[in-house]
Amino acid sequence: MKPVITIGYCPKCGWLLRSAWMAQELLTTFTDDIHGVLLHPSEISGRFWVNIDDQTIFDRKEAGRFPDIKELKQLVRDIVNPEKGLGHSDRK
């Protein structure tokens, strides 16, 4: 079974659009590698996190910031398909 990515976000903070954009980017990049992306409104104010199945790969509270899309794609790739090239997202 292919993994499911969950993006948890604070709806009170207005982070739905950011989360939806990130979901779109991940769905476009990892079409053949994932089952889907779930957007999960958090009941806890100020939360933003990304899980692959039950593994947290990014937590805004721990990092003190949001991930940029390049970083997020690399984190996802490293778990779902480590051999996948990300084109310009792999360049330093």
From TrEMBL:
Instruction: Give the matching Pfam families.
Output: Rdx
- Tell me the superkingdom of the source: Bacteria
Per the record's keyword annotation, is Nuclease included, yes or no?
no
Whether Magnesium counts among this entry's keywords is no
Q: Which UniProt keywords apply?
A: Redox-active center
Q: What is this protein called?
A: SelT/SelW/SelH family protein
Q: Which organism is it from?
A: Nibrella saemangeumensis
